[in-house]
Amino acid sequence: MPGEKILVIEDEHDIRELISYNLESEGYDIIKASSGNEGIEKVQKNVPDLILLDIMLPDIDGLEVCRKLKREDATKDIPIIMLTAKSEDSDIISGLELGAEDYITKPFSPRVLIARLRAVLRRNTDANEAESTVLTVHEIQIDAKKHEVLVEGENINLSATEFAILSHLATNPGWVFSRNQIIDAVRGQNYPVTERSVDVQILGIRKKLGSQGRYIETVRGVGYRIK
Ligand code: CA
């Protein structure tokens, strides 16, 4: 799709310009970086739809960049195509193991690059559509994939534990969950959850939901539900 943002992380000026020129003529928006750290910085400022990542970079190498991006929730779903020299077989394997979607060996023809890039973008769009799980309850929208909650259209900040609890309640509106069931649901969030702390978390969630907070009901002696 034209207008998709591609970040090109490549230290060799000529290759960077060649890639950028060819992709721009196909209608893509190009962001350029000439080192690993600059690349990571640019991803954080402006999340691209795909990253072309050279492995041999002057500061931190492409594998390290890949590892860092795949470790963070906010960036782990951005597809990465690695650019490698033919002799770097072990790098290709490491890159794929780290979660890169594909690789292209240098030298490559612009047409091959564009075909590969399109294939990866298409696969990614399909996967996103299949996984898109937005729960809507009253004026609360919970996007499990983006880890985002909108209240009356406004993005609100929940902690990981609050997000897990709210998501759990919202999977079955009307259903009453005991404190223990809620604890089970949020285990693994690195939060020492006790029955009492569930109450504290719920208070926090209600507050952050503002006027929508009233839909989280306390069912005396039993637990909580979303009306
Ligand atoms: Ca290089």
UniProtKB/TrEMBL annotation:
> What is the protein name given in its UniProt record?
Response regulator
Q: Which residues bind DNA?
A: 132-227
Under the heading Gene3D superfamilies, the entry gives: 3.40.50.2300, 6.10.250.690, Winged helix-like DNA-binding domain superfamily/Winged helix DNA-binding domain
**CDD domains from the entry?**
trans_reg_C
Q: List the SUPFAM superfamilies hit by this protein, alphabetically.
A: C-terminal effector domain of the bipartite response regulators, CheY-like
Q: Alphabetically, which GO biological process terms does the record hold?
A: regulation of DNA-templated transcription
Residues with the modification 4-aspartylphosphate, per the entry, are D54
What are the recorded GO MF terms, alphabetically?
A: phosphorelay response regulator activity; transcription cis-regulatory region binding
**One Pfam family in the UniProt entry:** Response_reg
Q: Which InterPro entries match?
A: CheY-like_superfamily, OmpR/PhoB-type_DNA-bd, Sig_transdc_resp-reg_C-effctor, Sig_transdc_resp-reg_receiver, WalR-like, WH-like_DNA-bd_sf
Positions of the Response regulatory domain: 5-121
